[in-house]
Amino acid sequence: MSSMKPTTGSERLEVLDALRGFALFGILLANLYSFIGYNTYSPAEIIALPILDRAVLFFIDWFIEGKFYGIFSILFGVGFALQAERFSRTDESFSAFWMRRMIVLCVIGLLHMYLVWNGDILTLYAVMGMVLLLFLNVSNRALLRWVIVLLVMPLLMYGLLYVTQDAAFWGSMRAISADLQAQWGFADLSLLEMRTSDTPLEVLSVNVLYSIPRPMSYLMTGRYFHVLGLFLIGVLLARHWLPRIRNNDIAVPRLAIWFGVIGLVTHFGYAYIKGSIGSSFELNGMGAMLAIVYNVGATVFSLAIAMLFLHLWASGRGQFMFRNFALLGRMALTNYIFQNIIAILLFFGYGLALMRKVPFAYLPLFALGIILAQWLFSRAWLGRFKQGPLESVWRKLTYRPSRAGVKG
After folding, report:
1. pLDDT digits (tens, 9 = 90+) for 36-50
2. How many CA atoms lie within 13 A of 335 on its CB side?
3. In the chain, % of residues over pLDDT 70
4. How far apart (Å, rounded) are the C-alpha atoms in residues 260 and 101?
């Protein structure tokens, strides 16, 4: 039998759980943006929203959009490096273990995407996590070069899309989705009508229809490259900062301060441009500027927030708050899916169908209510069990014995 077992509570780095829980709250704020119905508004309707609604949207675009998914991605890379380090002390295959782990995550993600919400991010993480294995033994210097290349790729993809925007290839998946919607008899129904329908099949069908073009949208925006680049940043941080994190010896480097300043400035520009045009993606001069400030700002802002968080933890300030975030972070997979289930019961036709009935100004209140419910659930669950329910399933399937009777 294998000597490798899931990480125990004593082996976990609580600061990483706390940062993961903090990121989970930011992701909730960003996702509620969609659940309340942002994608059902036209650009003109967005621009015409009441000032308080637009102020909340501006705040989220400036401080939330892209940053917390970025932190989550960086932490994914950190987790990869930590697991690889554990396996380096054994004779067992880390690659086999990691591939099995990603396959299970992909299955969970696909179930979440089709049964809960098509905005799932787990499937993308699982697929790019498999690619991450190619960088397992790459030197730090080479990793840094790859990070630069991968983070530039979204801008190159935008340029390619700009000069080939009339190519049928880019709209091929949307055409398949539209044809399928017509075949199912939903051609005359809008997204809002389907999402708030009292017919569960119509609500559920949106997940399938909108999941079809999602891989193409990732390619068009360069999301595959961006996520992989953030993973590699996480690997570099784990390799460089791991001993210091374990010793609570973390100072904020000057580079992190500059990252924060650059992030604040560029994403102020992102929020301003997006609020002015009522859209996050356009193929014109303004859209090009939007792509630049988003991709630059989201990455450096994510790094700055993560570094500041680690510094505050090491300084001993805010420990009570951070440890409460750690409760959420220890059950990040469960809580991510749980918060989306709560949201669909609030905003979709399965439950209260509040989509577009709730002003965006109320978004922070909904987020606080949901995160409080998750904190209470996490506290109660972890008082009795070592892992969250989905974390337990994920780990049992990952560490299960093979046919030869060996875990790996």
Report:
1. 999 999 999 999 999
2. 32
3. 92
4. 34
Residue 30 CA to residue 61 CA, distance in Å, equals 9
Burial call 19-58: b when 16+ CB within 10 Å, e when fewer: bbbbbbbbbbbbbbbbbbbbebbeeeebeebeeebbebbb
Measure the CA–CA gap between 41 and 277, rounded to whole angstroms.
Answer: 12
Alpha helices in 133-213 (DSSP H): 140-163, 172-183, 191-195, 200-211
- Paired tokens of 324: 């409460």
Task: Name every residue whose Cβ is closer than 8 Å to that of residue 1 and which is 6 or more positions away in sequence.
Answer: 401, 405, 406, 407
Of 4, 15, 119, nearest to 329 (Cα)? 15
Q: What residues have CB less than 8 Å from 300, skipping those under 6 apart?
A: 259, 260, 262, 263, 266
pLDDT value for 9: 43
The answer for residues whose C-beta is within 8 angstroms of residue 326's C-beta and 6 or more apart is 14, 15, 17, 18, 21
Whether 70 and 230 have beta carbons less than 8 Å apart is answered as yes
With tokens 């899309």, the residue in question is 161
The model's pLDDT over 130-159, given as tens digits with 9 standing for 90+, comes to 999 999 999 999 999 999 999 999 999 999
For residue 56, what are its two tokens?
A: 């909340």
Chain segment 14-39, per-residue pLDDT in tens: 889 999 999 999 999 999 999 999 99
pTM of the predicted protein model: 0.92
DSSP 212: S
